[in-house]
Amino acid sequence: MANVTSGLFLIISLYLYWIVFHSTNIYILFGIILTTAIIDGITYNALSKKGKTKKRAKSPRNNSRKYKNKEDFNRLRSDENIIESPLEELSWREFERICYLYFKARGYKPKETSNGADGGVDLIIFNRYHQTNEAVQIKHYLSSKNQITVREIRELNSAKRNHDCVLARFITSSGYTREALIEADKYKIQCHSIEWVKSRIEKWRKSELAKISDKKAK
Q1: For residue 72, what pLDDT is reported?
Q2: pTM of the predicted model as reported, rounded to 2 decimal places
Q3: Are 176 and 184 in contact (CB under 8 A)?
Q4: Buried b (16+ CB within 10 A) or exposed e, 53-77
Q5: For labelling alongside 123, which of 20, 44, 65, 218 has CA 20 to 30 A away?
Q6: Is the CA virtual torsion 175, 179, 185, 189 positive or negative?
Q7: What are residue 139's phi and psi, to 5 degrees?
Q8: What is the pLDDT of residues 35-85, one digit of tens each?
């Protein structure tokens, strides 16, 4: 883009210099060449700064920075403590666990995959409607700016086959890019965002919390 701008300036200036004004002044010619170089430098620097700003804006923030320490980011407390905690206080492991507890309570017979070897799948649930297993990938983000992209959708689509699953769904506490939703529709992957989490899992969590409170009161 910088070369195009400076190139156009040079062509127009030389056209005016030779064709229109029939000038042979060497100082004017030197001034045109110098000005072209300056324009090229200014345009290049402006575009470079703009590109860096865009790159910084698009790069996902480290999700662990919002936790007090690394232990909080990776912690896994008891089921009761998890149910008693609001969504924003859960670690990524605890968010996966509360999803497991939710599906268990709903009769989906969930199975947790081995940590570190899930290949993009965190739970296997039984889809009663289709009478088959379904692979579930879960991502917990504290910031809505960290959205699920096409890459994560493709990873889930590949990973579900490693668990002999035809169906798959993605659950996140944030949202999805437009391209990710298009890709998910292509692979028939259900996508649940923070709105689904609040209307289903969070609602269930609060009802379970009320039960726990009633038991403690007795």
Answers
A1: 74
A2: 0.67
A3: yes
A4: eeeeeeeeeebeeebeeeeebebee
A5: 65
A6: negative
A7: -130, 125
A8: 777 776 676 666 555 554 444 444 444 454 455 565 677 899 999 999 999
